[in-house]
From TrEMBL:
Any Pfam family matching the protein: POR_N
UniProt KW keywords: Oxidoreductase, Pyruvate
KW Oxidoreductase (keyword) present: yes
Enzyme class: oxidoreductase
Name the record gives this protein: 2-oxoglutarate synthase subunit KorA
Molecular function terms from GO: 2-oxoglutarate synthase activity
Entry annotated with the keyword Ligase: no
Length: 389
């Protein structure tokens, strides 16, 4: 089969059980919606083309509150518009997948050109402190599998998930054998969904369902509409365990801490690891994320031919992300490669490990090429580190 990254995301969403998609056409994310249109209907799902991105995310939020696995996809300008509702998604603890297929920005930018400039937006966007997951597939086939994982993370931890791709991945078409996407390997985990047989455990002394119960792991019980004794409120205002608005200071602390605990629980339970290539014993460590993986893997071969041994870590999890402290401490030279001007992922890594890294950035709207990366890495290694910082 022939697929590009957007189509792989659409196929992954359907395989993961997504039954509602709302979106507004925008380059380079439109192919996600086009792929799902007609196909998801065969499984009882629905695609809605909304009048704008604000409507799209609010429709998806409503579907998720009703119990459907729901998703929206857009690019940077759409993420800007969706940010207010993103806060509501997180505060109401609604599982939702939001796909950002990045392009050159800011503003309208260059809609048909490559860039990885939205990392900070997906990590930090929104007022207040919002728990979230950020997953960034590194290959076209991973677009399928990471989409499945994104839906599972969203429902297991009742937290919004940013699925971050980019134009290079969106338009790259590859041929795959059907076995690459073995549907028998797809696992659907819906988290702490409770039915009539289990709900008594989560009722208070007055028989009211505690949809925001301050569980030790941060994850509350979830009852779909229509569940006997499962009726409850939810709001974007701070709320108590019943979902009723409150400004009680103790309850505020309890609910904020509870929402943050979900991230720590996920760190303990999930495998947020990197993909490794090249020479594991090399003194030179290259780190990257997203669609740069393919060019870097090819570049490793060129570097090896020229006598350069390199260890390459490709990171598909932006938050929570793997701790790279030991890997960086073991290396003599650390280079972070990404398609943006400021080195957003390099900044994150430096914050994590309290070590300076060297950077190779490209932001002219064109993806990296293997020979270009090999040359850039050699030049970086042959230049004193202080001259590159």
């Amino acid at each position: 089969m022939l697929l590009n990254g957007d189509e792989a995301i659409g196929m992954g969403a359907i395989a993961a059980g997504c039954r509602f998609y709302a979106g507004y056409p925008i380059t380079p994310a439109t192919d996600v919606m086009e792929y799902m249109t007609g196909r998801v209907d065969q499984f009882g799902g629905k695609v809605v083309q909304a009048e704008d991105e604000l409507s799209a995310i609010n429709m998806a939020l409503g579907a998720a509150r009703a119990g459907a696995r729901a998703m929206t996809a857009t690019s940077g300008p759409g993420i800007d518009l969706m940010t207010e509702t993103f806060g509501l998604v997180a505060t109401s603890e609604t599982p939702l997948v939001i796909c950002d297929v990045m392009r050159s920005g800011p503003s309208t930018g260059m809609p048909t050109k490559q860039e990885q400039g939205d990392l900070n937006m997906t990590l930090y966007g929104g007022h207040g402190e919002i728990p979230r997951f950020v997953v960034a597939p590194t290959t076209v086939s991973e677009c399928f599998w990471k989409t499945v994982e994104a839906f599972n993370l969203a429902e297991k931890y009742q937290t919004p998930v940013f699925l971050v791709s980019d134009l290079a991945m969106a338009v790259t078409e590859q041929t795959f054998s059907p076995e690459t996407f073995d549907m028998d390997e797809v696992e659907i985990e819906r988290g702490k969904v409770v039915d009539e047989n289990e709900i008594d455990t989560w009722l208070d002394e007055k028989g009211r369902f505690q949809a925001h119960f301050a569980a030790a792991d941060g994850v509350s019980p979830r009852a779909f509409p229509g569940t006997t004794d499962g009726a409850h409120m939810t709001t974007g205002l701070e709320h108590d365990e019943l979902g009723r608005r409150t400004e009680d200071t103790d309850v505020r602390l309890e609910q904020v801490d509870k929402r943050q605990r979900k991230v720590e629980t996920a760190r303990e339970q999930e495998d947020f690891d990197y993909r490794e290539f090249g020479d594991p014993e090399a003194d030179t460590l290259v780190i990257s994320w997203g669609s740069n993986e393919g060019a870097l893997r090819e570049g490793l071969t060129l570097l090896e031919e020229d006598g350069y041994d390199v260890r390459f870590l490709s990171v598909p999890y932006i938050f929570p992300r793997p701790d790279l402290t030991e890997e960086i401490e073991a290396a003599e030279d650390v280079i972070v490669v990404e398609c943006n001007a400021t080195g957003q992922f390099a900044d994150v890594i430096e914050h994590d490990v309290l070590e300076r890294v060297q950077r190779i950035n490209k932001y002219n709207g064109v993806r990296f090429k293997a020979d270009e990366l090999a040359t850039e890495i050699k030049q970086t290694l042959d230049t004193p580190a202080e001259a590159t910082q």
